[in-house]
Structure formats: structure tokens, C-alpha cells
Design goal:
Rossmann fold, 2 domains, 10 helices, 18 strands, 19% strand, globular
């Protein structure tokens, strides 16, 4: 069986890096890699030559039984009987399942892997979210016209910047940790009760708004809240935002538009020079004025809308993504063939078309 790894047309990452190939040797399969697939992640074709055969895209698509990509292949490249491994996001685009079935394609969607302890080593969403949280702080620092830490100099003392993180999941916690390392004062808010202890363990202050819905069955995602809670939440956020230099928003509800946490009125109340980094931009944004994949300036406040910040650190992002795939492939490839055992909760959760 041949497994192909394609070059991402609009992403600097690559799904599998050369150091991962020896870890997959025991699977009893052959690997094909598209020419130039790893270049933007700092891996040359020569780096892949020992563990994979470097081929052009047409050859790879024709000869591969399993095709791996970070972003889904265009439907024009789907071929009947092939197995595709990618991130199809069926919660956001449910029609993709019927489209795959019509083409007779088997598909595993990596974003559907259950977010459980058992599947943690395969969780590409968490791996990429951690990088995004780190990078969000660095992106904010690039636009912020002042220091992060307190600085005491002969010319005077500079107060530390204030950072507000909305959503304390994987990305939010990494953002908190990074901002704290840079010396900022950090506050964080999350509707999930379990987040409080994690936020405080990183040295940040946790903002509490009473009355949040229980989230224990949400699989690590936020849940939709009542209108009353949302009103009180927005009032508290606006009060904190007026004194913040940076706001980083990370809140997403699976399969739904990202919750609005920072309305335009809040942006209007912020200090000139402040920065908002919206990691939920691709699902509508947590900030009302966010424009996906764009940096805008509103009344002196910079708003960065980017849900794919991990792609800006392609080498480490590819390394972590690849490690996740090594663990996943070791689960679904048995004796040189694809294992579609629906008794396995990870396979059942990620296999969207059998």
C-alpha cells in the first residue's frame, strides 16, 4: 500500500516530516511525497529521500491508496476508492460528508478525533492551538507600541502591559503563559469552571461571571450561554478591556459561529495603540470588528483576525502535526492495510465516510 503526502497549496506546513518516517517503517507501507512539500517547513526533498519516494502531484494522486493533507484536497482531485486523511471540519461544513460519499471516497477527519486522554497524542487541534496561543502574543507584541514588562530606567519607569485573554482552552493557556513570561499583567476569562485553577496556576487572574451553563459534556469546547449571562459577560469584558493593552480571544463553539465577546462599543472604549488578536476569526470572530485573515485599525486599535497562526511557525507546527499523525497511522494501519474497526472510539469518531 502507498501513502502519499501532498504539498499544501496555501499553507507553509507539511503533514509529515522526514524524522517521522522511520517511526512508520513497521507499518509495511510505502510513502510518496510530493515534490517541494516540505520546503516551506525547512525540509528539502533530499531530506525525504531515505524514507519516501519524491514524485510529482499527478503521480502521487494516481499511485497513492491513502492521501494525507492538512487542508482537504479540492474535490476535483478526489478519486473513488481512495482514503483521504485531512481536516474536513464536518461540523462547520456538514455537506462535505455527502460529497465524499458521492465520490466513493473513504475519509478520516483529524479534527473529529475525540478530545480524550486516550487520543491526546493524536489531537492535531490541541497541538496547533498551543502554537497559535504562543504566536498570538508575539503578533500582539509586534503591533503594541510599548513594552510588555515593567521597565525601570534612568529615564523613568514604564508600567507593565495588561493582557486580557478570553477563552482559557489550549490556545488561551499558552497565550497566558507566554504573556506572563514576557512580563505582562494577565487576566483571563472562560465560561468553563475547570479553567479557573489552570489560569491561576500560570500566575494570571481569573475573571468570574456567575451563572455559566455546565460544560462537562462539551469535550473541551465552550457551550452556548444564556442571553442574561452573555449580557453580564460583555459588561465585565468591556470594563476590563478599557484598561487592557492587549486582548486575545480564543473562544469557539463547535459547529457554530464564534461567540461575540468584544462588541464594537468595547473596541471604541479601548486605548489607542491597543491590540486585539482574534483566533476565532474563521468562525465569525469573537470581536465584532474582526475581518478574517486581515489586520485592521479601528480608531487606533489594531485588530488581527487570524485563525491559522500555527502556519506562521511551520517547522515546529509540522513537527508536532507529524507526531500526531504517526500515532494516528499506527492506530489505523494494520498489516499494511487501513483498519476501519468501528469498535475503536477514535476510529469511529474520525471516520466520516467508510
Amino acid at each position: 500500500m502507498n501513502i502519499g503526502i501532498v504539498k499544501e497549496p496555501t499553507d507553509n506546513r507539511v503533514a509529515i516530516v522526514p524524522p517521522s518516517l522511520p517511526k512508520l517503517a513497521k507499518l509495511g507501507v510505502n510513502f510518496l511525497i510530493e515534490e517541494g512539500a516540505g520546503e516551506k517547513s525547512m525540509y528539502s526533498d533530499a531530506d525525504y529521500s531515505e524514507g519516501a519516494k519524491v514524485v510529482d502531484r499527478k503521480t502521487l494522486l494516481g499511485e497513492s491508496d491513502v492521501i494525507i493533507s492538512i487542508s482537504p484536497l479540492p474535490s476535483s482531485e478526489w478519486q473513488e476508492g481512495k482514503t483521504l486523511i485531512s481536516q474536513f471540519q464536518p461540523y462547520n461544513e456538514p455537506e462535505v460528508i455527502d460529497q465524499l460519499k458521492e465520490k466513493g471516497v473513504h475519509a478520516f477527519s483529524l479534527d473529529m478525533i475525540p478530545r480524550t486522554t486516550l487520543a491526546q497524542a493524536m489531537d492535531v487541534l490541541s497541538s496547533m492551538a498551543s502554537i497559535a496561543g504562543y504566536k498570538a502574543v508575539l503578533e500582539a507584541a509586534q503591533y503594541l507600541p510599548r513594552y510588555f514588562p515593567m521597565m525601570i530606567t534612568a529615564a523613568g519607569s514604564v508600567k507593565p502591559s495588561k493582557v486580557l485573554v478570553l477563552g482559557a482552552g489550549v490556545a488561551g493557556l499558552q497565550a497566558i503563559a507566554t504573556a506572563r513570561r514576557l512580563g505582562a499583567m494577565v487576566e483571563a476569562f472562560d465560561t468553563r469552571a475547570a479553567a479557573k485553577e489552570e489560569v491561576q496556576s500560570l500566575g494570571a487572574r481569573f475573571i468570574e461571571v456567575e451563572g455559566a451553563k455546565d460544560d462537562t459534556a462539551a469535550g473541551g469546547y465552550a457551550v452556548e450561554q444564556s442571553e442574561d449571562f452573555i449580557k453580564r459577560q460583555r459588561a465585565e469584558v468591556q470594563k476590563r478591556a478599557m484598561n487592557s493593552d492587549i486582548i486575545i480571544t480564543t473562544a469557539q463553539v463547535r459547529g457554530r459561529k464564534g461567540p461575540l465577546l468584544v462588541p464594537g462599543s468595547t473596541v471604541e472604549a479601548m486605548k489607542k495603540g491597543s491590540v486585539i488578536v482574534d483566533l476565532a476569526a474563521s468562525t465569525g470572530g469573537n470581536c465584532e470588528l474582526t475581518q478574517n485573515d486581515q489586520v485592521v485599525n479601528h480608531n487606533g486599535v489594531t485588530i488581527i483576525g487570524n485563525s491559522n497562526l500555527s502556519a506562521l511557525m511551520p517547522q515546529d507546527a509540522s513537527f508536532l502535526y507529524s507526531n500526531n499523525l504517526v500515532n494516528f497511522l499506527n492506530l489505523i494501519i494494520v498489516d499494511g492495510a487501513v483498519n476501519m474497526d468501528l469498535e475503536n472510539e477514535i476510529i469511529k469518531g474520525s471516520l466520516i465516510t467508510a
